[in-house]
Design goal:
The complex is a heterodimer of chains A (115) and B (113).
Chain A lengths: L4 E3 L2 E4 L5 E6 L6 E7 L6 E7 L2 E5 L7 E4 L6 E5 L8 E8 L9 E2 L3 E5 L1
Parallel strand pairs in A: 2-11
Antiparallel strand pairs in A: 1-3, 3-8, 4-5, 4-9, 5-6, 7-8, 9-10, 9-11
Chain B lengths: L3 E2 L4 E5 L4 E7 L6 E7 L6 E7 L4 E4 L2 E6 L4 E6 L8 E8 L8 E2 L3 E6 L1
Parallel strand pairs in B: 2-11
Antiparallel strand pairs in B: 1-3, 3-8, 4-5, 4-9, 6-7, 7-8, 9-10, 9-11
Classes of the chains: A mainly beta (115), B mainly beta (113).
Chain lengths: 115, 113
């Protein structure tokens, strides 16, 4: 068990550019989540997958955001035409859910700065 | 409209004393609660959880208390250690709502040597 990993750890981009983040969950975890965290706030839910199916998207996830988990393992989060308001920490979490209580395990996050 | 609130942005405690972090929630559907700890430049780390069928759960120096009628939970750390200095997040969800954890804004704990 190597934990949840995220790549890159930091990204600086110019407004209007596209960025893509990758998350590798804990092996065998069937659920994978994306969150966004800004300064002084807790993580805010963006979207989640159960295996390869994207089951829910938050209203925070505008149509500039897209996430995939093509083989039910790693996931990517793409932001198109980035805006300064997209600057935040993007967190990925995974869990092994078989019904009932669930504990999510987080990666170290990708810190995005949009100039 | 914050469903999970942590009204103390920061807390300072002397090493060896008890740290008490508080969390309030408004959604009565929540029935599973978790505490996460976060160091700078790292993701949140799971600490301890409690189901609504219990009023207390203990793991080493960490104990979480749940008061369902008051919609309040607290995390006690005894004794506090300098390594406990971090931001602590309270999170809430339901068994059938597990895909959407709702996090509080966090409390920064500083344990002074």
């Amino acid at each position: 068990d190597t934990g949840v990993s995220q790549d890159p750890r930091h990204k600086i981009t110019k407004r209007g550019q596209n960025v893509t983040f990758r998350c590798d969950p804990i092996s065998e975890h069937n659920r994978l989540y994306w969150y966004r965290q800004t300064l002084g706030q807790g993580p805010e839910f963006l979207t989640y997958f159960q295996n390869e199916a994207q089951l829910e998207k938050s209203r925070l996830l505008s149509d500039r955001f897209s996430a995939e988990r093509p083989k039910g393992s790693f996931s990517t989060l793409e932001i198109q035409r980035t805006e300064q308001g997209d600057s935040a920490m993007y967190l990925c979490a995974s869990s092994s859910w078989t019904g009932g209580e669930e504990t999510q395990y987080f990666g170290p996050g990708t810190r995005l700065l949009v100039l | 409209d914050q469903q999970v609130k942590q009204n103390s942005p920061s807390l300072s405690v002397q090493e060896g004393r008890i740290s008490i972090l508080n969390c309030d929630y408004t959604n009565s559907m929540f029935d599973y609660f978790l505490w996460y700890k976060k160091y700078p430049a790292e993701g949140p780390t799971f600490l301890i959880s409690i189901s609504s069928i219990k009023d207390k759960n203990e793991d080493g120096r960490f104990t979480v208390f749940l008061n369902k009628s008051a919609k309040h939970l607290s995390l006690h750390i005894v004794p506090s250690q300098p390594g406990d200095s971090a931001v602590y997040f309270c999170a809430a969800t339901t068994d059938n709502y597990g895909q959407n954890f709702v996090f509080g804004p966090g409390t920064r704990l500083s344990v002074l040597p």
